[in-house]
Amino acid sequence: MRAAFYSSTGTAKQVLHVGEQPTPTPEPGEVLVRIAVSGVNPSDVKARSGIGISTAQPLIIPHSDGAGVITAVGSGVDSGRIGQRVWIWNARWDRAFGTAAEFVALPASQAVPLPDNVAFEVGACLGIPWLTAWYSVHFREPTADDEWILVAGGAGSVGSYAVQLAKRAGYRVIATVSSEQKASIARSLGADAVINYRTDDVAAKVSAIVGGRGVDRIIEVDLAANAHLYTKILKPGGSVIVYGSSDWNKPLPLHPWLRHGVTVSLFIVYELPADVRRAAIAASAEVLADPSFSHQIAAIFPLDQVAEAHEAIESGGVIGNVLLSIDH
Ligand SMILES: NC(=O)c1ccc[n+]([C@@H]2O[C@H](COP(=O)([O-])OP(=O)(O)OC[C@H]3O[C@@H](n4cnc5c(N)ncnc54)[C@H](OP(=O)(O)O)[C@@H]3O)[C@@H](O)[C@H]2O)c1
User: Fold this and answer.
1) Domain coordinates of the chain in residue numbers?
2) How far apart are the first and last CA of the chain?
3) What CATH number does the domain located at 2-125+295-325 have?
4) What is the dihedral of CA 93, 94, 96, 102, to 10 degrees?
5) Contact 21, 5 (CB under 8 A)
6) CA 151: distance to chain centroid?
7) Helix 131-138 vs helix 274-288: angle between axes, to the nearest 10 degrees?
8) What spacing in Å lies between the alpha carbon of 244 and ligand 1's midpoint?
9) What is residue 139's three-state secondary structure?
10) Ligand 1 atom nearest residue 266's Cα
11) Whose alpha carbon is nearest atom 14 of ligand 1?
């Protein structure tokens, strides 16, 4: 089969190759999926560059997310699944061979049925961006007086889902963005208010919007950059859920947080508990059935341009999900 692969970390153009690799055979409990679209995420790019979570495998086919059709099953898997359209999660977590290939074999539970009316391009956005956004919004039930949630980076791949899911959960939403283009995207997704975190005084704007009490919750894309704001924009006792940070070693203002009663939770989507993942997957079926729910697809590259797809993410210039289309 044709696949993208690398055997050492480095820049995209240096280490990513496209060529022939053995087509996998599904082991017991696995399905073989013919990939139509592979989803590219920042963690795939970081892993390839060597700054992400390291792996010892000698050859890696990148990308955790994807969508396609089951073409074979291993023993113990219902053969009725052959021909089923699916979306994929965690193809590259603790595993060497991901979705940037014509085929991937993986545990049957990691291939989730994709409704006929949902495009493979959408399916390839669900594994990381959707599940991360869902957990960020739903990791704890709202309290009776919860009203406002701030989504940092509200036009990003995760952020754009988080804005929509927070609205559906009944929150009023403030999105932070860095440009007018991203502001109009966040508004179109339902954000009640938008703040440009580069040009506006975020604390003053939040105070003006929510009446001085602070927001109830924050969904954080960059802990290191925004940690200093929490005591100014979060209500006392409020909570922050963190899924990203530009620096994981930066000292944090723990004493001000202590006095303010800030709760900070961090998580990695690859390690969601099984019951949480099941709930998120069940919720995805409902949302996928709703054509008004929006999926931000920034660019689709052919498999041969996998390096350009990685570079597009590294450039920071794309708004939304980057995908690879796999021709057969
Ligand atoms: N923990 C997990 O399981 C998990 C899951 C998914 C993603 N992540 C991580 O989360 C990050 C975002 O992923 P993504 O796929 O959503 O990327 P993305 O599509 O590039 O979105 C990130 C968004 O955040 C904005 N942003 C950057 N710095 C910001 C800041 N200081 N304040 C507010 N907004 C800011 C960016 O826009 P501007 O630069 O224009 O502001 C962009 O719109 C990556 O580092 C990724 O590795 C972690």
Assistant:
1) 2-125+295-325, 130-270
2) 9
3) 3.90.180.10
4) -40
5) yes
6) 14
7) 110
8) 6
9) coil
10) 1
11) 157
Pocket, ligand 1, Cβ cutoff 6 A: 41-43, 128-129, 132, 152-153, 155-159, 176, 178, 197, 221-222, 225-226, 243-244, 267-269, 316
- At 161, list the tokens: 């889902």
The DSSP letter of residue 285 is: H
Q: How far does the centroid of ligand 1 lie from the alpha carbon of residue 119, in Å?
A: 24
| Closest Cα to atom 9 of ligand 1 | 244
Provide the token pair at 66. 């994807």
Confidence band (pLDDT; 50, 70, 90) for 327? confident
- Do 2-125+295-325 and 130-270 have matching folds? yes
For 134, counting Cβ atoms within 10 Å of its Cβ (0-12 exposed, 13-18 middle, 19+ buried), the class is buried
β-pair type (215-220, 17-20): unpaired
Per-residue pLDDT tens for 272-319?
999 999 999 999 998 888 999 999 999 999 999 999 999 999 999 999
172, two tokens: 């009023």
Fold of 130-270: Quinone Oxidoreductase; Chain A, domain 1 (3.90.180)
